[in-house]
TrEMBL record:
<feature type="transmembrane region" description="Helical">
    <location>
        <begin position="291"/>
        <end position="316"/>
    </location>
</feature>
<feature type="transmembrane region" description="Helical">
    <location>
        <begin position="208"/>
        <end position="241"/>
    </location>
</feature>
<feature type="transmembrane region" description="Helical">
    <location>
        <begin position="175"/>
        <end position="196"/>
    </location>
</feature>
<feature type="transmembrane region" description="Helical">
    <location>
        <begin position="20"/>
        <end position="39"/>
    </location>
</feature>
<dbReference type="InterPro" id="IPR006311">
    <property type="entry name" value="TAT_signal"/>
</dbReference>
<feature type="transmembrane region" description="Helical">
    <location>
        <begin position="368"/>
        <end position="387"/>
    </location>
</feature>
<keyword id="KW-0472">Membrane</keyword>
<feature type="transmembrane region" description="Helical">
    <location>
        <begin position="89"/>
        <end position="107"/>
    </location>
</feature>
<feature type="transmembrane region" description="Helical">
    <location>
        <begin position="59"/>
        <end position="77"/>
    </location>
</feature>
<feature type="transmembrane region" description="Helical">
    <location>
        <begin position="336"/>
        <end position="356"/>
    </location>
</feature>
<protein>
    <recommendedName>
        <fullName>Integral membrane protein</fullName>
    </recommendedName>
</protein>
<feature type="transmembrane region" description="Helical">
    <location>
        <begin position="253"/>
        <end position="279"/>
    </location>
</feature>
<keyword id="KW-1133">Transmembrane helix</keyword>
<feature type="transmembrane region" description="Helical">
    <location>
        <begin position="421"/>
        <end position="439"/>
    </location>
</feature>
<keyword id="KW-0812">Transmembrane</keyword>
Length: 442
């Protein structure tokens, strides 16, 4: 067997190099955040790069989370992910990802699943405003924005309406509700795997599974309604991919494209940033030369938004109200310059070392449409001065797509590398450390 050439180091060496680069960048970023705190910069928190406070603590998740990480890494290293059927792989990914998110949350005990729900700054406090007349709530949502919780002011009414519906069907126990939200959010994993399989093949999707399951941003998946946006956005992208398959034509293609639009529109009623994922769908149609599907998906996206308009909530008016609130409540007290840099640090920590490999091989993957949509959302958020704390959960819908190129070949159309287990392990370890030290307000 010939020795590998010096200009193409073996995969293990490249992994170690990417992990080292990430470690250096992460340490420099943490040093920058610490400097900002020491200089008493306008950050709005003493725990930069995150919002919250620091305190070492140990809970059930302190043991459970490492066990889950070890089980996933062992399964991947033994080839189990390569041998099982695709349906079993998706199910395994979902269960493992859900367990990983819950295990991290349980470092705080059961409060890890409930503290966000009970916070006066979160959506649940606004459910009582809906009462028995959700239509009245929608009609007055924008006008009553100053009276809403902090979370509701920055979002459309979708999260509150979802919690109201959950309460109406009898899901009022906070632990059960927290588990339900986490379980729905974890559906992002099989959906993203399906999208990767459809765009770059099943072999790459199988290699991507451990990266996706043990992602550090799982810390914020538990009981974060932004996780529901991630699920809706991923489902929309999957529908767009189904619509644009070579053999899918006519009514079948239009039906999938319409579904992609409807899901994007529903996601937009949960988050004002969700439409950025629609850019990924546009890029998919462009890459597959199915331009007409943009019209169908665009019309589908308008249906939920216009439906909400007819019921009394104007999406554009809500966006203006959210920006106005942000300009008065957050902007004057948090430096845009410092937070623009610190938000990049959060991105590094939340996505783990896989982000370095993904950025390095961006041009080598056919999954580039996913990176365009998610990357544009992040860049716009920073450039517009909107990334001033809290991006660790606000960017949850975009994180899974930013690391897809980590399993891309070293050169276009080249051979796929092995699953990046070292990068995955380092990222999982960083998540365990962050969860053990950081007490978030969510």
């Amino acid at each position: 067997m010939s020795e590998p050439s010096t200009d193409q180091p073996p995969a293990a060496h490249r992994e170690r190099r990417d992990a080292l680069r990430w470690g250096v960048l992460a340490l420099l970023g943490l040093a920058l955040a610490a400097l900002a705190v020491q200089l008493d910069a306008r950050l709005g928190t003493a725990s930069a790069p995150f919002l919250g406070r620091y305190k070492i603590r140990v809970g059930p998740g302190s043991v459970l989370a490492p066990l889950v990480a070890a089980a996933v890494l062992w399964s991947a290293s033994r080839g189990a992910i390569q041998r099982r059927s695709w349906r079993k792989i998706q199910l395994f990914g979902y269960i493992a990802g859900l367990t990983w998110a819950i295990a991290l949350a349980l470092v705080d005990g059961w409060s890890g699943l409930t503290k966000a729900l009970g916070s006066p700054e979160e959506y649940l406090g606004d459910v009582r405003r809906v009462g028995d007349d959700p239509l009245a709530y929608l009609r007055h949502f924008t006008a009553d924005a100053p009276a809403h919780s902090v979370a509701s002011r920055g979002h459309p009414p979708g999260p509150v309406v979802f919690l109201w519906l959950a309460d109406r069907i009898g899901v009022d126990n906070h632990v059960v509700l927290g588990f339900l939200i986490t379980a729905l959010s974890a559906l992002t994993i099989p959906l993203v795997l399906s999208a990767v399989r459809d765009s770059v093949g099943e072999a790459a999707a199988r290699r991507y599974l451990p990266v996706l399951v043990l992602a550090p941003y799982a810390i914020w998946v538990a009981v974060s309604l932004d996780g529901l946006v991630a699920t809706l956005g991923a489902a929309a992208i999957v529908a767009g991919l189904r619509a644009s398959r070579t053999r899918v034509r006519g009514w079948a293609a239009s039906g999938w494209a319409l579904t992609a639009g409807l899901l994007t529109g529903v996601a937009a009623l949960f988050s004002y940033s969700a439409p950025w994922l629609g850019l990924s769908i546009v890029c998919v149609y462009f890459a597959r030369r199915r331009a007409f599907l943009n019209v169908v998906t665009g019309l589908g996206a308008l249906v939920p938004v216009l439906g909400a308009q007819l019921l009394g909530f104007g999406w554009a008016d809500g966006l203006v109200a959210a920006e106005t609130d942000y300009a008065s409540r957050v902007a004057p007290y948090r430096s845009v310059l410092w937070w623009s840099a610190i938000s990049v640090v959060v991105l590094l920590l939340a996505t783990g070392p896989a982000i370095v490999a993904s950025a390095r091989k961006l041009r080598n993957t056919a999954a580039w449409p996913f990176l365009v949509g998610a990357g544009a959302a992040v860049v716009f958020s920073i450039a517009a001065g909107l990334a001033r704390g809290g991006v660790e959960h606000a960017w949850l819908p975009f994180f899974p797509w930013l690391t897809v190129a980590a399993v891309a070949p070293q050169m276009p159309a080249g051979e796929l590398p092995p699953a990046p287990l070292l990068l995955t392990a380092v990222g999982a370890a960083s998540a365990i450390v962050i969860e053990a030290l950081l007490i978030t307000p969510w």
